[in-house]
Every structure is written in structure tokens, then in C-alpha cells.
Amino acid sequence: MKGFVRIGVFSYLLLFILICAQIIPEPTRPIDLWNPFGLTSTARPRNQRLKSNEVAVRLSIGDLIGKKVLLQNLPWTPDLDPSELEPPQRSHFDLSNLQKRNSITVYTFLGVPYAEPPVSQRRLKPPQLIRELPSKPYLAFEYGAACAQDVEYRPQVLVNDPYPFIVNEDCLYLNIFSPDVSKVSGTSYPVAVFFHGGNFQTGSANEWPGHSLASRGMVVVTVNYRLGALGFMSLGDSTSGNYGIMDQRLALQWVRDHIASFGGDPQGVTVIGHDAGAVSVGMHMLSPLSKSLFRSAAVMSGAEVSYHSYIGKPALAFNNTIKLGRYLGCTQSVAFDVWNCILSRSTNDIVRATTDVPVEYNRYLFLPTVDGVNILGNPLWIMNNAPTGLSSVPNAVPLLIGMNAQDGSEVILEDRLLGEFNDFNNVDQAYFRSYALEYAFRHNYTMNREAIVEAIIDRYTFWPDPSDDWAVRNSFIQFATDAYYTAPISLSAHLHSTAGSRTFMYVNNYNLSRNGFIPGWMGSCRECDLYLLFGYPHVSDDFRPYHLRGVNFTAMDRNASQLFSSIFRRFVYYQNPNFLYDGSWAALEPRRHWYLNFNYSHWSEMSIPGKCERDYLYTNVAFWNEYIPALVNYMTTTFPPIEVSVRRQLMAFQWVVAIVVALLLFFIVLTGGFAYQVCERSQSSHDMKESHRLVEYADNFISNNSIHDPHFPRVSNL
Known about the structure:
Elements: H1 2-23, E1 54-59, E2 62-74, E3 102-113, E4 138-139, E5 173-178, E6 189-195, H2 211-214, E7 219-223, H3 228-232, H4 243-258, E8 264-274, H5 276-285, E9 296-300, H6 314-327, H7 335-343, H8 347-356, H9 379-384, E10 399-404, H10 409-414, H11 416-419, H12 429-442, H13 449-460, H14 469-498, E11 503-508, H15 528-533, H16 555-574, E12 594-598, E13 611-614, H17 618-632, H18 644-708
Parallel strand pairs: 2-4, 6-7, 6-8, 8-9, 9-10, 10-11, 11-12
Antiparallel strand pairs: 1-2, 2-3, 3-5, 5-7, 12-13
Helix pairs in contact: 6-7, 12-13, 14-17
Keywords: Membrane, Signal, Transmembrane, Transmembrane helix
Family: Belongs to the type-B carboxylesterase/lipase family.
Protein name: Neuroligin-like protein glit-1
């Protein structure tokens, strides 16, 4: 019976193995690091002829094939901007009579690798310039992967919008958009290199198609760089961290070496950055390593002197890395071992842990770090110590710097508890106060923290009706805008101007038409200037970011976009944003902080981009740049109140210290008593010995004297 059972079990096992052998696929071949997901191939036979919509470019590192794209109904050409027409030929905006429409061909090269994949042995190491394209010819038809990030952490209006790009560590790609690849030296176009934003935590070059901007007559390059822990994790020394900054610098070197093949002028590069990209541009201006890689710079909604944009203390960067290691189970006692342990973890584990680790100081865990090499020192210190007029800043190039009037709306969009349910009305007084307290804590305001919070609340309270939630939300946005953007950007503009850069500042006050995409309360929101710069109101959904597809822009939006992008076109071409027949926009002066108030309306002229004004929100700027630092350093006669959580820990610590001190005192008393008793007993024994010795001595003395002197009295023993 047992034999039949065994035979039956064996038969079933054999049948199961045979079935599995049919359904289990063959082992996969080794993963191609250039195409790990098996997407459309980037290679084709060399002898295959180009299609009608393709274009080939020959580089020293290999041949590259891109595509031709036709943009229609544009009011400009690559070689003629409407703002450069003589005044009689221009008129007021007319909704029924738009300017002449043109069809323009733009040549695109997407997903072009500029460095070796930063994976395996190249993970968390400086980038290596690519020496040879992975295939010849290389098909640059599709965007490369976005750098590793938590895509759910994006501060977007549509927080539940799925992310359309692959996220991977192999991400060092750039995208090129050219109006004409056949241009030769002397007639080539200037180049605009764009670094995306995302607070060094999220974002991708793929999110900002440059077709429309390239049709304005410039070669546009958008660049990916490493983010978060994989881009900025550091042990606080000069040999680790700042990989994202190094990626950007390597991309600029690649552009210098190869952009001429795309019709661009390698000596005419303007580097443009938004948000974290703007901070990066400022860092490159202060770095000798980036010298001669660009001739002008444009900074949008960010400043390198902002406390929230970098880590100035290497010890903090070191601690953040150790904290990440603990969340990943790396608890070794040696920092180098913790680093190697983190290296062994998967991409997803590192990204998720970075999001989960609580941030105690600053806004984010991993940021550019002062290392003495890529970032020589505290940017504010460097700028403050630059000689007036003759700058010690290595790249004191012409600078265009600006922001959106409501950039701080980003803070609300980042709060998933609000954004997930689109319940942005919950920004009330309690929320405002709690965020102000968190701001003071993360800014490491250890002295007068409560006074600082009260000063912020007092400054931004709508006193006619403090309980008005609409007013509270608007005040909160103004607070966040001033703290994170207005104050540091104004300070950066002033310092760069003083250090020798011819600096032009703008403030975008134009509100895009209310079309269901941007809520009315956001005003001139975060990234609104990018929508205008890249010309998205002028192009179809195929050439817009994924989150702008389906948005119905109006004729006013298109004209505002035309004016705003003309400002940048003039700056990229001539390092001066003034229109040809309008020179009213003055550069900053030490005591006159001029700026352009950009705000287009039905009654605006297409020849005037805005109104030049002075000292943008100077009282708010002084509050953050002068009053708050003074309040931090002000010594009060009483100690500030302590937070409840800290008070509990302090009380526990005090009790422990008291118990330890009491036990120590008890031990000292006990030891002293014991020592006293020992001394007493020793002294008594000594006294008794002395007494016996004296008695014996006396007896001997008396005995000796009585023998020699019969009159000497004898004392008899009793």
C-alpha cells in the first residue's frame, strides 16, 4: 500500500515539473544598462536610409539621429522676433486680429546620454563623460529615464496625476531642440541650457519640452541630474556628495564640446534654472570649476543664498546620511561601512527611506553641501566678502533673476494631507501657526523661537478679520513666498549686482486664465513663468508637459507668453532683456533695486513687457533679511518657553540626573563612614599598643632605678 502511495506522489511531482517546464520562460539575457526596460531600440543598421522626418548629426562620439517636428501658427520666426519690429508696425493687442502665423520646423534629439550610466560601480560617484555613444547611429527619438525620485512627492496641482516617465538611476540624459542643425560657425544660434526644479528631490528635463522656445531662434538643451540621496548624500567631506551639481557641470562641458553640431554657438551659452535649478545656477556662478562654461545666467524662483537651498554644516550632512542608514538597517559603527551598506540597498529602498526619514533641520534631508571643492563655502559669506565692483565671484556674468508673485503656493501643494483631497481651504489660523513653528524649528532658531513665531503671525495676519479663512490662506501663501523666495532672491540680486554682475530682476504678476487647471487662489503660481517662457499656450498638446495637456489657454495667455519669452530671447542673444525700442528696464543699482513688474492685460501693448518699479516688497524683505536675524541674536532677560515634547524629555533627563547625583552622594557618604570606622579602629589598636609599650617602658625604668638607688620607691603590682 505504501508503495502505491509513493508511486502516486512521485507521478504527481513529475507531472508538475513537466508543466512548469513548459510555462517557465528561458533565462533573460544580461540587462543592457542603456536600455534596462527593453524599450524601443536606440540602434539601427548604419546603411539604412533616413526617413523624411529624420535628421542625422555626426559627433566625435558617434552618429546621432533625431526627428523633425513642425510647429504651426506661431507669431514669430527663429530669425525675427515681433518685439524687434519698429514701433509703427506694432499695435495694441486685438483679439480678432492676431499677428501673422508661421510654420516652423524644430529638430529634436531626445534622451541623449552625456555621461556613463551612474550605476553599479559608478553609483554615488562623480559622473564620467561619455566617450562613445552606446550604438552607432544612436536613435534619439524618445526621452530617457527620469532620475530616481519619489514621484508622489511632486508639488503639482494635480497631485493624483500619474507620472508618465520611467524612473531609474540610469538617467544622465539631455534633450536638444534646435531651429536649424545646418548652421555653421558665425551664423549659429545662441544656446539656452535649462536645469529643472523640484527642490533637488523631484523633477525631470522630460517635463519641459523645448520645441516652442527653440522656435524663437535658440538651441535649447534640457538636462537631467541626480536627485535626493543618490545625488546629494554626503559624509560631510570633500570626497562625497554634490553629484547632482557635478552632473550639471559635466552636461555644460558636453554642450561646449558638441553643441556646434546642432547649430549652436558653444561660446554663446546661457544657463537657465528654475527652483532647484536656479540654486544650481547660482552655485555654478560661485564655482571656479564652472568658469568659462557659460556667458550669462538666468535664475527663476530660487536663490543660492537661501538657507533652505543648501547644507552649510558638513556635520549635518554626515548625520543625515547616518540617519538614512539606520532606516535602511545599516547600523555599523564606522561611517564608511554605513556608506557601503547603503550602496548595497536597492533604488526603491533608498528613495522610500529618504522620504520616510524625519527632517529636523532645513526643508529636505539631502541638498547641495558645502564641501570646499564644488561649493567653496557658504554662498552668503562668499557674496558678502566679494569686493565691490571687481568681483571675486568666478563667473560674474550678466544675470536675469526673478520670481512669481505667489511662488509660495508650492508649500500648500506639497502637503499631501491637504492636496490629496483638494481641501486647500483647511489652511486656517491653526495650520498657519503650526507651520510657522515648524519653520522656526527647521531653521534651527534655538533662541527666541516663540518670539519669532509670534513676529511671523503678527506680520502676516489679516487684522481686519483674522478668522477669514480666505484671507488666512492668502496671507500664508505670502508668508511662504517671502520666506522662501522674495527675501533670498532680492538679497541674491543685490549681492550679484554689487559683486559685478549686470543684474536685471523681474516679478511675474500675470495670472493665467482660469480654465479649471489653476485655482484662482493660486494667483501667479509656482511654475507659471515656465509655462510662459516655454510657450506652451502657443503649441498643441503634443509639445506640452503631460500635466498641461487639455488645458485651454486663451489669446491673452498666448500674448503674455510671447512677451515673456521675448524677454528671455533678448537676454540670451544680447545679455540685456530690454526690447529693441524700449529701454526702460534698468539694471539693479546698490541703492536702487529696479525690477520689471510683468503683468499683461487687454490694454497692454505688445511692445511693452511691463512696468519698471523699485524695491519690491522692501518691508517684507527687510523683515526676513534684517529683523528676523536680529531677533534670533537678541538676548532676552527670561528664557523662552520650551515645547511640550522637549519639556518632557528635559524633565526626564533632570530626574535621571537627580537620581544619579543622589546615589552618588549616598555612595560617597557610605564610603566616608566606612573609611571613618576603619580609621577609628586602626587608631584604637595603635593607642592600645602605645599604652602597653609605655607601661612596659615604665616598669623597666623603675626596675632599673630601684636596683641602683635603694631610696627610690618601688611600686608594687596590684
